[in-house]
Amino acid sequence: MIRILLADDHAIVRQGLARILEKSGEMKVVAEHGNGTDALNWLHDNGCDIALIDISMPGMNGIDLLKQLREKKPKLPVLVISIYSEDQYAVRLIRAGAAGYLTKGCAPAILVEAVHQVASGKKYISPAVTEMLANKIDDSQEKLPHEILSDREYQIFLLLASAKTVAEIAEVLALSAKTVSTYRARIMEKMHLHNNAKLMRYAIDNHLVE
User: Fold this and answer.
1) Is the separation of the CB atoms in 64 and 53 below 8 Å?
2) Is the pLDDT of residue 135 over 80?
3) Helix or strand or coil: residue 112?
4) pTM for the full model?
């Protein structure tokens, strides 16, 4: 039986994922948490075979949780499942140590297959992500402006590019508006952009938002 930890801030999503996974008869969701901090605290005294985590969670999000798990539970495989397309996050997270990346629009059979594969010690990487990784191998190539952003900066960049306000981003990420504004200024400086309109145009031109 594959024991699974689910971390997603939407209860209805956790219930849906648990139903799909447990229907296989070979998997059991042993814990559900709505943020990374609670998931990490649970893992301090409990164990599982795989962590299935979302990116966007209040407080400690999936990106920060992945980093913590790589440090504190290096043998625990982590499969990321997100609303964000593979173009937006997959390469960044796999490079950071995720064993696989799925979008929430994937078929249930794909989810079950990915969990099986990752729990067995393998990576689950789609053909599209394999191609993206291959294109990133040559480190001599000059990085695009968004590729030099830190993980938190990149997350805020995508939210800004999706037309969210500083106040809305602060609420989503459980940060102060002042902190988000500081990140925004840093992003603009690093990417040599002067306003949100240019930032949004950059994201669209580079296929980082729909």
Assistant:
1) no
2) no
3) helix
4) 0.75
Query: What pLDDT, on the 0 to 100 scale, is given for residue 133?
Result: 67
The pair of structure tokens assigned to 26 is: 């070979």
Phi/psi at 206 (5° precision) = -100, 15
- Nearest alpha-carbon partner for 58 in 42, 41, 35: 35
Class of domain 145-205: mainly alpha
The domain 2-135 is classified under which CATH number: 3.40.50.970, 2.60.120.260, 3.30.70.1020, 3.40.50.2300? 3.40.50.2300
Residue 88: CA count within 13 A, CB half-sphere: 23
Task: State yes or no: pLDDT of 11 exceeds 90.
Answer: yes
Name the residue among 206, 30, 8 with its Cα closest to residue 102. 8
What are the extents of the domains in the chain? 2-135, 145-205
Contacts of 123 (CB under 8 A, 6+ apart): 94, 99, 100, 117
Residues 27, 4: contact at Cβ < 8 Å? yes
Burial of 85 (0-12, 13-18, 19+ CB in 10 A): middle
Nearest Cα neighbor of 83 from 115, 60, 105 is: 105
- Give me the residue label for tokens 């939210």: 159
- Structure token pair of residue 104: 């929430």
Q: Where are the beta strands (DSSP E) in 23-156?
A: 27-33, 50-53, 78-82, 100-103
Q: What is the pLDDT of residues 15-62, one digit of tens each?
A: 999 999 999 899 999 999 999 999 999 999 999 999 999 988 887 888
